[in-house]
Amino acid sequence: MSDPVHQDLLKTPVEDLTAEQAKDHHAWLCDEIREHDRRYYAESAPTVTDAEYDALFRRLQLIENRFPSLADENSPTQTVGGTVSSGFAKVAHSKPMLSLGNAFAPEDIEEFVDRIRRFLSLEDNDEVALVAEPKIDGVSASLRYEQGRFVCGLTRGDGQVGEDITQNLRTIIDIPETLELDDPPDVFEVRGEVYMSHADFAKLNENQDAAGKTVFANPRNAASGSLRQLDPTITAQRPLRFFAYAWGETSALPADTQFGVVRSFAEWGLATNALTAICRSVPEILDYYARIEGERSGLPYDIDGVVYKVDRLDWQDRLGFISRSPRWAIAHKFPAEQAQTVLQGIDIQVGRTGALTPVAKLQPVTVGGVVVSNATLHNEDEIDRKGIRVGDTVVVQRAGDVIPQVVRVIAEKRSGDSQPFSFPDRCPICGSLAVREDGEAVRRCTGGLICPAQQVERLKHFVSRNAFDIDGLGQKQIVAFFEDGTIETPGDLFRMAELDGQTGAALADREGWGDVSARNLFQAIEERRSISFDRFLFALGIRHIGQATARMLAKTYGTLDALTDAVRQAQSREGEAWENFLNIDGFGATMAAAFLDFFAEQHNVDVVEDLARQVSVEPFEAPESDSPLSGKTVVFTGTLETMSRAEAKARAEAMGAKVAGSVSKKTDLVVAGPGAGSKAKKAQELGIQTVDESAWLEIANTNQIDF
Ligand code: IVH
Question: 163 and 36: one domain?
């Protein structure tokens, strides 16, 4: 609050600020205004007069008028009266809203189509028809129609849970209140993109400017900001549009192809994109891409690529999903936008697992509508390979939501006295040796938990969205709690409320906090005292153990006790317990070793045990499934003729089974195709039920088998 630099900057007229000062000052003003909002709204205890508040807000608007790219959707100017999106009710999606994998080069597209062919075991002359359409740069939404009436509309949120913005969506002319259908399905969730056209965006900004309000940086931000208004009458004044291109839960489908369903959308009165086309080969796809790229600048709305989707819905069903994106669709992105700027310095950041990452400090430059002042340099080899030196003029690029990158150096612009960058061999935070393991590009700090950087990064990871997900506890708060000694390990979080005020000031009395916010935080922490096993494992932040792997471990071992037992027995790296780790499908030796290495360190065990005493870890619950394969372990061996290995595995997993790579006493079923060798033999020796491909198909299709 009393930051002297910014108090001073407040006296500088906005037109005299440099781009760099403006960016910094803007961030400070946003924090300041949010804090005043919180004091005013949450605590009813403002510390500034209305006139002082208005002056800060006006200054923020002036800065955003001069530097429109700073006006992102999080700016207080983009929300009404301090209201933020948390004012909307959270509603779970009946089917998750997924994202798309990205392709950039023609080879990526060939690979995409090849993968589909392999997965479906298609013959060379089988045609894979794909629906191609522009990728709209907007905000996705899901519209639920029951008996043809629009009853509920949600944002994407995290893909699992969205926010209820029904009233705002009702103001959009492309979204009908009732579908034009004589006999509408009981349930139909239409999904698509909310966007703003260039013309409407320009008009909106003109009006905003004339009224002394903030202008938006780009149509996407304008659409997102408009949808997040808590007052739908404001959204109604914003000319939003909608394209329907996908669906969620449905009680009946109007067609058996993607193209057919989207055509039905149009018949039902929804807006669909007129550039949607069918492509029947990779060359046709690439022609489509080139055509749309050529038309891009003339289109009345922003697009950032094209999307391809397998047309046949039965194939879409068979292809299914891989983690968060469908195997049957892909986004082919347009090349990233680039700009030139000066590399002012290289900072070294230390991550959760000790990785030293060089970060380019750039003279701020606008790339694709956003001000960029940091970019990743990946690792030391990358700096060498690109010959990057401090002071160089470099090309930076930004593609979508990806972190900006330094592409190359403009050699002609280098000054004579620049020196190659020498990468430190000690951790810049704790001074421990930083080493590169064999075959690794990354240099790591060997300080482990004595390194404050690793400690704080682990804590940030611990509270993050896919881990403990504690409301009101963001990265900034974690850093502050770590620095003032309140929290060192995850267990400390759960002792915070009890120990509050005993050694230092009570949380409610600290800078930036108050009675209400402190109480809310303690309550949010309390709500996480019970945690699912997979989240618990993921939250530990063990190297190589991501969300999917944590889930596999939780599924395989069921409870924390069972897993800890197995870890103890497997530490010798031999015997059955170790074999079982290696046998977890998709869990290679690297992951198994990383996982055991973590538990071989006593300080890690202490942290985990301490945490486990504070929280209750729920045993893993397999998704409800009435399939007889649920919870069983299946091994495929030999060649399968009608179904690819990948499809067989996906199908077994969809039926709740675990798929293992080798046969052991824990195997329940072996599917042996022609050429099955030692695995089939071992199954026989162990007396494990073994079936051939046709029996497997029968099981997959009828969902029946007797064990
Ligand atoms: S299909 C399961 N089609 O892109 C498939 N998405 O990067 C769901 N998007 O979250 C998405 N235009 O917000 C699809 N024609 C289009 C799209 C599109 C824009 C957005 C959408 C999605 C994101 C994924």
Answer: no
Task: Tokens for 218, please give them.
Answer: 């780009």
Same domain? For 427 and 452 the reply is no
Query: With 0-12 CB in 10 A as exposed, 13-18 as middle and 19+ as buried, what is 219?
Result: buried
Q: Are residues 131 and 173 in the same domain?
A: yes
d(Cα 326, Cα 316) in Å, to the nearest integer?
8
Last residue of a domain, one of 400, 415, 436: 436
Same domain, 546 and 588: yes
pLDDT given at position 341: 95
Smallest CA separation from ligand 1 atom 15, residue: 135
Which region among 193-207, 286-300, 392-406, 630-644 has the lowest average model confidence (pLDDT)?
392-406
Give SS3 for 580.
helix
Give CA separation, 375 vs 406, 440, 542, in Å.
6, 22, 26
pLDDT band at 150 (very low <50, low <70, confident <90, very high): very high
307 Cβ inside 6 Å of ligand 1: yes
627 within a domain of the structure (yes/no): no
Are 214 and 64 spatial neighbours (Cβ–Cβ below 8 Å)?
yes
Say how far apart CA 287 and CA 332 lie, in whole Å: 12
Whether 18 and 36 share a structural domain:
yes
Contact 553, 570 (CB under 8 A): no
> 283 and 314: one domain?
yes
Is there an atom of ligand 1 within 6 Å of 325 CB? no
Count of domains in the chain?
6
360 strand-pairing partners? 346, 375
CA nearest ligand 1 atom 10, residue? 99
Ligand 1 probe mutation, 133, 196, 307, 308, most atoms within 8 A of CB = 307
List, in order, residues 6 or more apart from 313 with CB less than 8 Å away. 253, 255, 256, 257, 258, 261
Residue 626 within a domain: no
CATH (domain of 158): 3.30.470.30
Q: What is the CATH number of the domain that holds 64?
A: 1.10.287.610
In a domain, 519, yes or no: yes
225 located within any domain: yes
Neighbours of 475 (CB within 10 A): 14
Q: What is the distance between the alpha carbons of residues 21 and 16, in angstroms, rounded to a whole number? A: 10
The verdict on 302 and 244 lying in the same domain is yes
Q: Which domain holds residue 63?
A: 4-78
Output the domain CATH number for residue 400.
2.40.50.140
- Polymer length of the chain: 707
Ligand 1 within 6 A of CB of 637:
no
d(C-alpha 201, C-alpha 207), whole Å: 10
Residue range 331-355: average pLDDT?
A: 93
Domain end marker among 584, 618, 652? 618
Three-class secondary structure of residue 539 per DSSP: helix
What is the torsional sign of CA 357, 358, 364, 365? negative
The Å distance, Cα 135 to ligand 1 centre, comes to 7
CA–centroid distance, 227 to ligand 1, in Å, is: 18
* Residue 81 pLDDT level (bands cut at 50, 70, 90): very low
> pTM for this one?
0.63
For ligand 1, pick from 136, 227, 333, 401 the residue to mutate: most ligand atoms within 8 Å of CB: 136
Q: What is the domain-level CATH number for residue 505?
A: 1.10.150.20
Which positions are catalytic?
A: 135
Mean pLDDT throughout 662-669? 90
What percent of the chain shows pLDDT beyond 90? 58
Q: Is 302 in the pocket of ligand 1 (CB under 6 A)?
A: no
Residues 543, 459: one domain?
no
